[in-house]
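Sample pair:
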Amino acid sequence: MGTTHREHSPAMTLSDLRVVFGETRAVDGVSLRIVPGQVHGLVGQNGSGKSTLIKVLAGYHVPESGSVLEVGDQRVTFPVTRAAHKQHGMAFVHQDLGLIPQLSVLENLLISELSSDNRRWISWPRERERARVTFEKFGLHLDPTAQVSTLTLAQRAMLAIVRAVEEITSHRSGDGESSGGLLVLDEPTAFLPENDKEHLFQLIRDVAASGESVLFVSHYLEEVLEISDHVSVLRDGKVVGDFPSRGLTKDRLVESIIGRSLDGGGAVAPPATSGKIGIQVSDLAGGLVKGVDLQILEGEIVGLTGLLGSGFEDVPNLIFGAQKAERGTAFMGGKLYDLTTMEPARAIEAGIALVPADRHHDGLVQSLSVVENVTLQLLASQRGRFGLSRSKMLRTAERLMEDFDVRPREPFCKISELSGGNQQKVLLAKWLASEPRVVLLDEPTRGVDVGSRHDILQKIQAAVVRDGLSVLCVSSEPDELVELCDRVIVMGGGQVASEIGRSELTKDRIVERCYSAAAAYA
């Protein structure tokens, strides 16, 4: 954790921050005090006001009059401008990372600096060497000339974080002393495997130790408790908890976030399998996958995991036909399917549903309404005498929004206006309502708050029990796999390395098997 510096002079103070959208109070009188040299955690359910608060600091939203922001001993006017960020040493890593895929690693690293310095001439060889030194300092192996679109998600995340750290450290005065900068990290570990998370945490500790402050926003409560000195909790746009991290338990934090305990929250009985095969995949290959056999029974939830690059992340797309398979077959419903010719439309027709990892680009149409998104797979049943029936679509959407507790209950609002957790509920509702036989879940709770995560996992379990679904849950989160799955398959080097049965399924066992698999197939 960070070392406290100049506690008498906060790095940042927010007082009575209020943001209103129509009749909705997204942020309702929030006050925060962030101390120099500390990591300050900020947690809350999706829709609690965290993203809105960050967008105020970033200059995207303008709060109501009476809201006050002070950095050090200086008051900052709204909207907060890019010049103000540079003046006060404020840098951001947003959930979308803020990178331009078509540009190179180097261009993305320098884009903020170049746009503000108005350079007419750039020595690219010198900048490439400078970038290599920077990456070496942070222990990264990135080619400055590579196009960002060719990087893995983990590499993109680390590039965005390094860029922000460089911005914050450049704010120091010539003698190396910090002048109280602020680094804002919004869900920085969402795309990082475990080994890169520890690397990131060391970067954060170094930044705090040098006297800067870090605002760390995350749904992963274990990470918040590990890295933060202090934690603030938002609920319904208000600060409802403010705790020193030392001695704070995850259970106490969860209770503050959702306003209740999760214990006994309508737990679903473990699914009882029929013994019948729901889907059997044989000799699947493509992408990083080199030959995988797996079988899922009706009424069974099977987890699939491994370290990043082990191939587990390619399996759902190969089965669904969203990624080209080199070979492999799938047997289900008494039919044998050639996966080399599988396409999404054919997979849907066969009774396969894919809930993709990237809901923004692959799962939902951000420009359409909730009602249009949630009924997208049901259009054949939503017809009237003269084409699509808007009244049928509305009734269906209202029923699904009620069943999956989507908030707010406004079917005609754009899907982009919903929080991440509620968007994920819409995505899950859309696919489960299509009555599939096999469901492929790809990181089903990524970027989802603790309350929505609990609701989503319960809905999956309930659907399996009720409909006898065969579910493949592809996840990099051991806790999620332990909570949801009957057994877990671990991959390494594109192959199945081991299987963990329910009786020995623990987080530590999953992590141990993942690293053992990576070592065995290295």
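The longest strand covers residues 24-34.
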